[in-house]
Design brief:
The chain is mainly alpha-helical. It has 18 helices and 2 strands.
Length: 491
């Protein structure tokens, strides 16, 4: 089969189909796993009928993904070792994608099946770290290429999220008790009645906000991985953003000229490195433990010069010959990652080459609208189908009494506010953890009591998510890699 001038073998087509299905299934599970939290309170307090609530939440998840900027989509991809991302169309790269997605899916599906709220993002991060460790060990680097800071972020989230959720929701409920003198609001929801209109409005509003925010943030994380799966099949066709406009191409060429001039002043008499050697040096520098050395600026200069020569006179990246696009994607990706790290280490100023970083990122980190639509549909459908198990746990099994109207409002307000604050401050919080612990906080504040066995299972699942997914990612990668190398012959 030939697509866009790229010849596909039966094996590549089979991998692409399986990979796309797993990617979309991950988003499907993400929908009924994570976003069931958004509908739990509106369903259980009878603010909306279940069918209406899940469709409503599914629609807003869909819209959140569809109208997302795509900037978060590649954040998860950045955790992988740069050398693995550069060679994603190899057998090793394909095995890594298959393993990390499968590991996250297995754990997410298992925790959903037993009705335990769990973070899909943490599952994915754990699986990626496991794949990264296995890959670096195979490269005889003994775990040097692992972003251990991501593991620290997860542990920090496990510490921050429950505290924020528990305390904030409890305080909101206590404040509501002071200002509201309606006892019915603090009693378990009556299955025959709906809450007062204003409470109903607050719950529907927060459900909408949490659903949209989940789609626009967490929903994006599967997009970048789906793009990598597609690039395994079509490494040249999908290498560069075909939607860049002529004026954006001109701006990129101008910024490349500026970057080349800037770096020529940095390297002084040292000559640029040959292209392949430059890629190797920059990949080493961009590894988590990579250190700055005298070869970084010459290697970066070489990559920018090579890319500039290929965009000269072009009004679209599609005008670059098909056989050259994959190499130019590698050049642009490495250059963008290097500039980002140099700026972080204060070896270049924040404003020196910021516009060049933006242009390079636009060239390689793009999401076609049909990919957004596919992910949005999977996430939305997941919300509509698999919500019952998590909703039952959140509403009935955390406290010794069932959820009250005021408790639902306090927990949802906490969750929506925390998402907004975390996005602005860059705090590593989990929506799932905030809502679940928020409901626990309202149960304590309302003197309802807690079901210790349920809380024990939830906390155990939270703590085990990272190590279990780490193990799954590493072992699946080793197994799939053996299969690809020795059975399929794909290297």
């Amino acid at each position: 089969m030939n697509i866009g001038g790229e010849q596909l073998t039966a094996g590549i087509i089979a991998f692409a189909v399986i990979g796309i299905c797993i990617s979309l299934f991950f988003e499907f599970i993400n929908g009924f796993h994570d976003t069931a939290n958004a509908v739990a309170t509106v369903i259980y307090t009878h603010s909306l009928p279940p069918n209406v609530a899940v469709v409503w939440s599914g629609i807003w998840n869909f819209l959140g993904v569809l109208f997302s900027s795509g900037t978060v989509a590649y954040s998860v991809v950045a955790i992988l070792p740069p050398a693995l991302v550069l060679n994603v169309s190899s057998g090793t790269g394909a095995a890594a994608l298959f393993a990390l997605l499968s590991g996250a899916v297995i754990w997410n599906f298992g925790t959903w099946y037993v009705g335990i709220p769990c973070s899909s993002s943490h599952s994915l991060i754990g699986s990626i770290l496991g794949v990264s460790l296995a890959y670096t060990i195979m490269q005889s680097k003994q775990g040097e290429g692992i972003h251990w800071d991501q593991a620290e972020q997860v542990f920090l989230s496990l510490l921050i999220s429950p505290i924020v959720g528990f305390c904030a929701a409890a305080l909101i409920l206590l404040a509501l008790r002071i200002f509201l003198k309606t006892p019915r609001l603090f009693e378990p929801a009556d299955s025959r009645k709906s809450p007062p209109h204003w409470v109903r409005g607050v719950l529907i509003l927060t459900c909408t906000g949490v659903s949209f925010a989940h789609g626009s943030n967490d929903g994006q994380k599967g997009m970048g991985l789906l793009m990598l799966v597609l690039m395994v099949a079509l490494p040249s066709v999908l290498a560069l953003n075909p939607e860049m406009k002529p004026e954006e191409m001109q701006q990129l060429a101008t910024e490349l000229d500026h970057g080349i001039q800037y770096l020529e002043g940095k390297v002084q008499r040292k000559q640029p490195l040959p292209n392949e050697e430059a890629k190797t040096r920059l990949a080493e520098y961009n590894a988590p433990n990579g250190e700055f050395n005298d070869d970084v600026f010459p290697a970066l200069l070489s990559e920018l010069q090579n890319l500039r020569a290929n965009v000269a006179g072009k009004s679209s990246l599609e005008q670059i010959p098909l056989q050259d696009r994959r190499g130019q994607r590698q050049n642009a990706f490495l250059a963008q990652q290097t500039l980002k790290k140099l700026e972080k280490q204060k070896r270049i100023g924040a404003k020196d080459l910021g516009a060049l970083q933006t242009g390079l990122k636009k060239a390689v980190e793009y999401i076609p609208i049909w990919v957004k639509a596919a992910v949005a549909l999977a996430l939305g459908l997941g919300t509509m189908i698999g919500w019952r198990r998590i909703v039952k746990t959140v509403a009935e099994r955390i406290g010794k009494t069932h959820l009250a109207y005021a408790q639902g409002a306090a927990a949802e307000l906490t969750t929506m506010g925390t998402i907004s604050l975390a996005d602005n401050l860059g705090l590593p919080v989990s929506t799932t953890h905030v809502l679940t612990s928020g409901i626990a906080g309202t149960m304590v504040a309302n003197r309802s009591g807690l079901q210790k066995s349920t809380l024990r299972n939830i906390i155990l699942a939270w703590v085990l998510t990272l190590p279990v997914c780490f193990f799954l990612g590493a072992t699946l990668f080793a197994g799939v890699l053996y299969l690809f190398f020795n059975v399929v012959g794909w290297k």
